[in-house]
Amino acid sequence: MIETHGKIMITTFIALLIGLVFIQAIGTDVELTKVGSIAILNESVALTATTTTISNETVTLSDGLANKTGTLANNHLTTLTALRNFSSEVITNYCNITLATGVLSCNDTGNYTAYADYTYNDYSTGQLSSSYDEWLSFDACRNSTMDAIEANLHCNLTIATGAVRVNYDNFTDDLAYIDYKYEPDTYVHNSAARTILTVTVLLFAVGILLVGVGYAWKSFKESDMS
């Protein structure tokens, strides 16, 4: 009887130990079903520039004595392809341009109007982590020096797709740092289902307790009989 009593106690201990391991794992998974929002801070998003080509843009040049200046409609140029006068003569070699600002400075050639062909960086695009399929909110956007770029104006996020767009007038880096929230795949939307899952864990815990009590009771009974 003593040998049987010992076996029952060992079996009880093993059953409780295994039950505790399982209930911890199950409880952790059930808690994840209740997490409806996770905040991500400073996710690094690689940006790719989108360029636009302009042809025959009219530029009015100032009436300067030594040179004439003018400003293109866009800045952040990648290249000034050609600059012509009203007679379609190329005057690019007579002018300098600051690509970042689109400002022209030309020698005084007697022309007060120029026609420009150029390509400029219009905006940049990127993509949030592809592992998330339920983006909830767009909270902040920063450049590589952590300076804020106004969200939903100069830096935009398409919640449905996780696509990021940054205007070049306010941003010239190839990285952006985004704060946002997303909904994990484990979240259970239905509140009744979440409650049932919680009760399931409770019932499992009660079941383990009853198994332990049952084995202990059996052990004590056999001990008394001996």
Record the SSE blueprint.
Layout: H1 2-32, E1 38-46, E2 48-60, E3 67-71, E4 77-84, E5 95-98, E6 103-107, E7 113-127, E8 135-142, E9 155-158, E10 163-167, E11 175-182, H2 191-225
The largest pleated sheet is described as:
5 strands, antiparallel
**Uncertain regions spanning at least 5 consecutive residues:** none
Indicate how many domains the architecture comprises.
Answer: 2
Global morphology: rod-shaped
Helices, by number, come to: 2
Structural class by sheet pairing and helices: alpha+beta
Average pLDDT for all residues: 77
**Cα gyration radius (Å):** 35 Å
Distance between the termini: 6 Å
Give a count of the beta strands, DSSP E runs of length 2 or more: 11
* Share in β-strands: 35-45%
Question: Which percent range fits the helix content?
Answer: 25-40%
Reading the helices and strands in chain order gives HEEEEEEEEEEEH
Q: Could you list some keywords that capture this structure?
A:
226 residues; alpha+beta; 11 strands; 37% strand
Describe this structure in words.
- The chain is of the alpha+beta class.
- The protein folds into two domains: 2-34 and 187-225; 42-185, no CATH class.
- The chain contains two helices and eleven strands; from the N terminus they run H-E-E-E-E-E-E-E-E-E-E-E-H.
- It has helices spanning 2-32, 191-225; strands at 38-46, 48-60, 67-71, 77-84, 95-98, 103-107, 113-127, 135-142, 155-158, 163-167, 175-182.
- Strands 2, 4, 7, 9 and 10 form a five-stranded antiparallel sheet that branches. Strands 1-11-8 form a three-stranded antiparallel sheet, with no helix packed on it. Strands 3-6-5 form a three-stranded antiparallel sheet, with no helix packed on it.
- Helix 1 (2-32) packs antiparallel against helix 2.
